[in-house]
Amino acid sequence: MRNIKPYYQEVLQQLMVMNLPYVFMTGKDTLSGKNMEEIKKVLLLVLCYGVQYKGKRSVTHNQENMFNLQWLEVPDVALEELEALSRNMVFQLRRLIDERNEHMELIMDLTQ
């Protein structure tokens, strides 16, 4: 978190006047009102960066980063396209499961 203010100032040319979120709180009491305010700050910073990021098109159009749900609304999807979408979905699920397991291991290590 300590690199966020310099990044906003040097790269985005914006002076951050809000207090940085206290991220250590977010892992303790996840449902408290104060914790939710800190999570909102983190999301605000990420979203503000995402809107201004010059390479956002390459991020949002990369199938490894995003999963397009528009195909659910199309009644007649070609079999080849359905297979490609299914492979992408499996890739995304594997990645999410790996991330979940990695974070669970970290949580277990931190709580011992």
Automatic annotation (TrEMBL):
The organism sits in which domain of life? Answer: Eukaryota
GO CC annotation: centrosome; cytoplasm
A single Gene Ontology biological process assigned to it is: cytoplasmic microtubule organization
Any idea which GO molecular function terms this record carries? dynein light intermediate chain binding; microtubule binding
Q: Which Gene3D superfamilies match?
A: Calponin-like domain
InterPro entries registered for this protein in UniProt = CH_dom_sf (IPR036872)
User: What is the protein name for this chain?
Assistant: Uncharacterized protein
Q: Which organism is it from?
A: Cnephaeus nilssonii (Northern bat)
